[in-house]
Amino acid sequence: MNEIEISTVQELLSSPKKIAIIPHRSPDGDAMGSTLALYHFLLKLNHQPVVIAPNDFPNFLAWLPGAETVLIYENDKTNCATILKEAQLVFTLDFNALHRTGEMEHVLNKLTVPFIMVDHHQKPDTFAMVTYSNTAFGSTCEMIYNFISFLGKEKLIDKTIGTCLYTGIMTDSGSFRFPSTTSNTHRVVANLIDLGVENSDIHNQVFDANSYNRLQLLGRALQNMKVFPEHKTAYISLSQKELDEFHYVKGDTEGIVNYSLTIKGIHFAAIFIEHLDENIIKISFRSQGSFDVNQFARDHFQGGGHINAAGGKSYDTLAHAINKFEKIIATLEIE
User: Fold this and answer.
1) What is the pLDDT of residues 200-214, one digit of tens each?
2) Using CA atoms, how far apart are residues 162 and 283, in angstroms rounded to an integer?
3) Is 31 in contact with 23 (CB distance < 8 Å)?
4) Which of 148, 182, 206 is the last residue of a domain?
5) What residues form DSSP beta bridges with 310?
6) Is the domain of 64 the same as that of 134?
7) What are 32-77's pLDDT values in tens digits?
8) 64-68: long-range pairs with CB below 8 Å, 24+
């Protein structure tokens, strides 16, 4: 952020306001961590913030401080739309195009109040008065830490805010193993731990609170894995029938795509998940090295994200989406 942008934000936050904070649809650890961290920060500045998520978030994030205050647009559209229309300022975190909010986009597009975007994905749209966008960061939570520091309010970061920030940094960095994890990332995390953030407990809450059904679903997913060593690619698929068989709940498939990348010689991984209630195949892509899954998702599956982590979708059948994927990878040279 430059000095003009910082000054603009300081002016916008100089008097108490009703503020809406929005994550993307199907919010992950970084989306919920950043929005809730900002929520607690704005409370300290005597604002009236509210986090409105487009749809529900995974149960393994329900322990986050303030998670019980989050409103779910999909569950209460009328009330949420009213709050959005009454907001005097809107923060959009961890996404950079309003269509990432699903049905909420129609309400957000009609608002005339200032928007502030904080995000680390490529090719941001231009809807915000202030855009803090930088793809070099591994998480929006790390950017929120900087955002608070830019405003000269770093001393307001406490254990509660730090817990939210640590969660997003940890999850979006693959527990600090992705290439976007920098020395500064570790400095930020060290500062949060010094504030009393219980890093080991957070890891356990997010990754080790498995249900029996989730582990059974993971087993089925691994059984469904297809490996193409000649293309350095592997993918996993899960049908709606399989999700139902193991009593799927939101968040149960989180991270499964990464298992394919643990196979020696595999540099490109995908998971295809059928959701008949939404008439959509949700797809996640991961890569190691220089293969750009962001561009792959944009070119072939109406998606996008980062160089090594992206998402996509298909409105075709599960079989047709997989068949399309197999045909495409047969033409690629993946290093």
Assistant:
1) 999 999 988 788 999
2) 31
3) yes
4) 206
5) 285, 305
6) yes
7) 999 999 999 999 999 999 999 999 999 999 999 999 999 999 999 9
8) 64/32, 64/33, 64/36, 64/163, 64/164, 64/167, 65/36, 65/40, 65/160, 65/163, 65/164, 66/36, 66/39, 66/40, 66/160, 66/164, 67/32, 67/36
Same domain, yes or no, for 116 and 258? no
Domain limits for position 278: 213-329
Sign of CA dihedral 242, 248, 250, 254: negative
Measured CA to CA, the distance from residue 120 to residue 124 in angstroms comes to 9
Element spanning 33, H or E:
helix 29-44
Q: Which helix (H) or strand (E) holds 119?
A: strand 115-119
- For 244-276, what is each residue's pLDDT tens digit? 999 998 889 988 999 999 999 999 999 999 999
Contact 169, 69 (CB under 8 A): no
Token code pair at residue 15: 């008097």
On whether residue 90 sits in a domain, the answer given is yes
10 Å CB burial of residue 57 (0-12, 13-18, 19+) is buried
